[in-house]
Amino acid sequence: MMTTMQRKRISRRRFLNLSALGLASAAAPVSAAPAVLKRRPPNLLFIHTDQQFNDAIAAHGCPHLKTPQMDRLAARGISFRLSYSANPVCCPARAAWFTGRPPSENGVVVNQNRPLLKTLPDLGQWFGARGYEPVYAGKWHITGRSVGQSFKVLTPGTGIGEHSDGGVARAAQQFLSHYRGDKPFFLSLGFLQPHDICYWVFAHTAPLAELPFPELAGHLPPMWENWGYDPREPETFRRGWRASDAWKQISKWPQWQWRYYRWSYYRHVEMVDAQIGLVLDALEDAGLTENTVIIFSADHGDGMGAHQLWQKMYFYEEAVRVPLILSWPGQVLENVQDTRHLVSGLDVAPTLCDFAGIELPPLCRGRSLRPLAEGKTAEWREYLVSEVAVTGRMVRTPEWKFITYRGDSTDQLFDMRRDPGELHNLAPDGRHADVIADLRKRLADWESHLQPAPGALSRDVK
Q1: φ and ψ at residue 412, rounded to 5 degrees
Q2: H/E element holding 440?
Q3: Residue 13: what pLDDT?
Q4: Partners of 327 in beta bridges
Q5: CB-count exposure of residue 417 (10 Å: 0-12, 13-18, 19+)
Q6: CA–CA distance, 224 with 255 (Å, rounded to integer)
Q7: With bands split at pLDDT 50, 70 and 90, how would you rate the model's confidence at 381?
Q8: Which among 343, 413, 418, 353 is positioned nearest to 381, based on CA atoms?
Q9: Mean pLDDT of 139-157
Q10: 83-84 and 343-344: which strand pairing?
Q11: Is 220 helix (H, G, I), strand (E, B) or coil?
Q12: What is the mean pLDDT of the segment spanning 390-413?
């Protein structure tokens, strides 16, 4: 029988072919498969989950879940650990991905009633007009534009999230296994999980008297250091979260219920990990791995109980920091975790365009990650900006995080190297006025170059 070591020396596709021929049991080592003829430009595969925190991957150091497929991508690529959502809300984050423009410019500043500007091309339209076959399956969720306007759609529907992740994975399997196109493809896959942890919270909002499944008691993650929070938060945030009826109930949870919540969240991540594996297997079985650039990311994270919060729509790390892994075997760095460079969801569009060898969409605000992924020295940004709704802004440097809401008298400043859990707001004490002034200047400089969409800065946004 072929040994495990011998199996590891050959690709999954090669092993399956040998098995079909009855050769997989050969005792002698199998010679390497012929090199796959690389086409130029490469195929592009954008895999995205919904509501996944950057650290919720085993390869990123989390001991409380198993994500062999995400780990597989990380092993064959570079993981950007300082990767941030352009806006930690579904529609705005996705509109930023597919236009390369922040929500205040593309018009999608909230989830409802703010459509994408008709004049802005999205990546499906952009790549489709430049020699690619744009294909989509799963969650789209960009208000004001049907996914069918821009992509060949494998999973019909509104694209809000009614597709099961299993259905998305199998649609991708079928596309990849039958792909015989003369053109390279741009395949975008919108997986829903771990988003449905929202419904878990809705079902468990009231404090529970006891753990529903006592056998889990010894398997719940421990309490985390940043379960608490500094009460000196912006009034805008406190009115939206700490004053809500849901938070008034959830804040009374016993500690084991908080742990149960995080345990459940990790199970949702594991569900989508399995589906991603089906796609990666299909890509390899079709012989397309060596000529396909893969980007894996998430639109935003989830509170997971840190600061006694859940869901998204704010700038604490758990909600705004998201995974971003770039993989192209043999072409980019492998098994590398980049903890130095600040990366934004706005970088997805220019990165894909760079690998495809096509020009950027108009006024694209991000930067291509390609030089970093290839291990090249590149001049990089010193800070990035993320938005929430109309008034909320975050400025992140390697050392600091500054959070401000227009018209709010309270700001937040965190020393991210000494206080990564964001437990001590340094803004109110006045000792870091020079730091705050510098970060305000950076924010003003960033916004001075933007071209806000009509009505995007109107305070009547709900």
Answers
A1: -125, 140
A2: helix 433-448
A3: 55
A4: 77, 294
A5: exposed
A6: 10
A7: very high
A8: 343
A9: 91
A10: parallel
A11: coil
A12: 97
Give the model's pLDDT for residue 364.
96
The reported pLDDT for the residue numbered 38 is 47
The whole-number pLDDT of residue 14 equals 52
Cβ burial 367-399 (10 Å sphere, 16+ → b, else e): bbbbebbeeeeeeebebbbbbbbbbbbbbbbee
Pick the CATH number of 43-198+256-381 from 3.20.20.60, 3.20.20.70, 3.40.720.10, 3.30.950.10: 3.40.720.10
CA distance 399 to 412: 14
CB neighbour list of residue 426: distance below 8 Å, 6 or more residues apart: 413, 414, 415, 432
Would you say residue 158 has pLDDT above 90? no
d(CA 455, CA 105): 10
CA 240 to chain centroid: 24
Nearest to 290 by CA among 75, 37, 89: 37
| Cβ–Cβ < 8 Å for 241, 314 | yes
Q: What is the pLDDT of residue 182?
A: 87
Given a cut of 60, whether residue 297 has pLDDT beyond it is yes
Structure-token pair, residue 246: 């849901």
Q: Which of 105, 122, 123 is nearest to 114 (CA)?
A: 105
Bond prior to 222 in cis (omega within 30° of 0)? no
Largest CA distance in the chain: 74
pLDDT reported for residue 111: 86
Say which range, 39-48, 51-60, 65-74, has the weakest mean pLDDT: 39-48
CA distances from 101 to 182, 203, 214, 256, 344 (A): 31, 36, 48, 42, 11
Q: Residue 240 — very low, low, confident or very high, per pLDDT cuts 50/70/90? A: confident
Distance CA 47, CA 168 (A): 11
> What are the residue boundaries of the structural domains of the chain, listed by start?
43-198+256-381
pTM confidence score = 0.91
> Residues, the chain, total?
462
- Percent of the chain exceeding pLDDT 90 equals 83
As a whole number of angstroms, the distance between CA 410 and CA 397 comes to 20
Element housing 350 (H / E): helix 348-356
Q: What is the helix, strand, coil percentage profile of the chain, to 5?
A: 35, 15, 50
Distance, in Å, from the CA atom of 448 to the CA atom of 13, rounded to the nearest integer, reads: 52
Whole-angstrom Cα distance, residue 319 to residue 54?
A: 9
3-class secondary-structure state, position 281: helix
**Cis preceding linkage at 115, omega within 30:** no
CA-based nearest residue to 323, from 344, 297, 352:
297
What pLDDT does residue 150 have? 95
